[in-house]
Amino acid sequence: MYDFGPFEFESKQDFFDKAMRFWNPDKTRFWQKAGIDLVIGKREGYFLYDMSGRRLIDLHLNGGTYNLGHRNPELVETLKSALDYFDIGNHWFPSVARTALAESLVNVSPGMKYAIFAPGGAEAVDIAIKSARYATKRRKIVSIIKGYHGHSGLAVATGDDRFTKIFLSDQPETFIQVPFNDIDAMERALEGEDVAALIMETIPATYGFPMPKDGYLSACKALCEKHGAMYIADEVQTGLMRTGSMWGWQAYGVQPDITVTAKGLSGGLYPISAALVNERAGGWLNEDGAAHISTTGGAELGCVVGHKVIEMLQRPELVANVGTVTEFMAQAMREMLVRHGDIFTGVRQKGVILGLEFSNHLEGAVFVSRALYEQGVWAIFSSLDKRVLQWKPGVLLDHETCRDIMDRFDAAMPRARELLHQAGKAS
């Protein structure tokens, strides 16, 4: 019998059977077929515990949601204290918590004027697109091939065919896609001067963190200015100190018109996201502030947690730790490339954002993910390029855990070779 507070299951298989019956059959089957039988029970810091008690070091972080760790004690206490005073709040009225978080976000985001809140990243992307359309009086949106910006109505239309066609959400006449790092293709998309905005993750996460070429992001911004489009920086996975700067666009010296943040802003405890807009993009807030409404967007409990998150991320010791972890991972990966270069072929890194390349099989990172899982490390492969493993250390990770991670990585490689060999024979 497995007891999760008010929830009980006879066995792990009993749980899986019910997940397939009542929740999501395809997802449940997929992970079992991949050899990942994880059902998260206890979670603390950068550690997950399977419902059977097995410990895993979390390098997935649910896309950066657990940037500061699972159930960070300071954030848990912040939320508990907030419950003595706050609830979701009322979206119609000015709010102390909402205003405080908005001020905090604008203060760490040069060029931004207002913060507009939503429950999740996709909804914040929708706000960003609507704001750009308001400001430019244009409709078309440019994004990159293999980009990812969430699953709501406007957001999903910017993404990969996998997520649009199944729901009849592909709109190629309005949502135009170009290859990443191809500045000529970008200019062709923008030169008609009928595009409202370019939206792009500073480093595309679901595509496996391909790094922007030198000058590419600045060139994209210059083209937006030349052709009257707005530049939306999706910082859902690259923001909040993960590049070594508060925002990835700061690390690359680019000034967006709109910034989207989510995931880690919640502290992993209460859903919240925001679209940060400059004065022009936020003009509609002066014309009709009720043009966009979200009952739970900017829920006051989430604002209290988010305010603490921003405060924590600015602490000198945390900023220094990001630099330390960045250097450690860079050196450790150089050593692993020498030791395991037959299957491990490259590293993409900016701060604590890493994509590890296993290019000798189209789904190489899927097998590496399983081998690491068996060694007690959870790192997920990139959905849109399964040769690449997403490797996302937390910003508070300590040296001892970093060393443990790399020891386990080293130990997992023989099993990864075995799984890759089996896959090669099967194909």
Total number of β-strand segments?
A: 17
CATH superfamily of the largest domain: Type I PLP-dependent aspartate aminotransferase-like (Major domain)
Strand count, sense and barrel status of the largest sheet are:
7 strands, mixed
Outline = globular
CATH class of the largest domain: Alpha Beta
Q: Pick out the low-confidence regions.
A: none
The CATH topology label of the largest domain is Aspartate Aminotransferase, domain 2
Structural class: alpha/beta
The overall average pLDDT, rounded, is: 95
Beta strand %: 15-25%
Helix count, DSSP H or I runs of 4 or more residues: 16
| Domain unit count | 2
Distance between the termini: 40 Å
User: How helical, in percent, are the residues?
Assistant: 40-55%
Task: Trace the largest sheet across and list its strands.
Answer: 6-12-11-10-9-7-8
**Cα Rg:** 22 Å
Family: Belongs to the class-III pyridoxal-phosphate-dependent aminotransferase family.
GO molecular function, one term: pyridoxal phosphate binding
Pfam families: Aminotran_3 (PF00202)
Keywords: Amino-acid biosynthesis, Aminotransferase, Arginine biosynthesis, Pyridoxal phosphate, Transferase
Please describe the topology of this protein:
Blueprint: E1 2-4, E2 7-9, H1 12-22, H2 25-33, E3 40-44, E4 47-50, E5 55-58, H3 61-64, H4 73-82, H5 96-107, E6 114-118, H6 121-136, E7 140-144, H7 153-157, H8 161-164, E8 175-178, H9 183-190, E9 195-201, H10 216-227, E10 230-234, H11 248-251, E11 258-261, E12 273-277, H12 284-287, H13 300-313, H14 316-339, E13 346-350, E14 353-357, H15 364-374, E15 377-378, E16 381-382, E17 385-391, H16 399-426
Parallel strand pairs: 5-15, 7-8, 7-9, 9-10, 10-11
Antiparallel strand pairs: 1-2, 3-4, 4-5, 6-12, 11-12, 13-14, 14-17, 16-17
